[in-house]
Amino acid sequence: MLKGTRIAVIGGGKMGGALIQGMIAGGLVNAEAVTVADTDEARLGELARSCKVLVTADNREAVRNADLIILAVKPQNMAEVLAGLTAAMVPSALVISIAAGISTAFIEERLGEGVRVVRVMPNMPALIGEGAAAIAPGGHATEADLKRTRHIFDAVGITVEVKEDLMDAVTGLSGSGPGYVFLIVEAFVDAGVRMGLPRETALKLIAQSLLGAAKLCLLGEKPPAELRAMVTSPGGTTLAGLKVMEEGKLREILMAAVEAATKRSAELGGRK
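The chain above was modelled as a monomer; its predicted structure follows.
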């Protein structure tokens, strides 16, 4: 689906790099069809060596002949980046943005009438091919554009489609989600150490426990509440632990965290 497509990636950071590696490793594109633009010369050199892609410090040079442009820049830099692309890019190019909080309308207004934009919210596990991404089409994006976008992000995890007005919620949940999980893992490891386990052993045990629990959820055979009930015996150890979590309002804390991150995503995009 992407063979013969010339791709420009604006921003060669961790997520941009993960997408490049995923597309090439998955056989979606040839390395020579990808041009990466970034202000960090050391990072460009690293990508050129490891991925064999073309690199440049000039965004305009990167997009000049591109059929597909991936915007992997920080939200606060988006307006400046777009201003430099307008005159250089091919009007028919598909634009994919992974910037948190930035709406497709924001991009469309700055790149010109009729530009096709797909907004994506990926997350950090894409770095190891286990990401979760949500995609939403802009006003001019076609079903074919969505298929191409899915193809790219399926190479580094799973992809779901949502309405754009839900993208801030996606950002608050799965976009920021790995950060919440890492904090929870830290706490569990510290708890294991407090109970006498070596730190390395505690980390292996809880990380594998979370991985296995997540896989059971993804199987979809039973809802999470039923899975929880299966490991919660009357008067048992799990019940004792869960009682402490509920008394500490863990559920409410996690919901509040997602709400706060969702609101911050909206703020980054100039919405309230």
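The chain has two domains: 7-167, 177-268.
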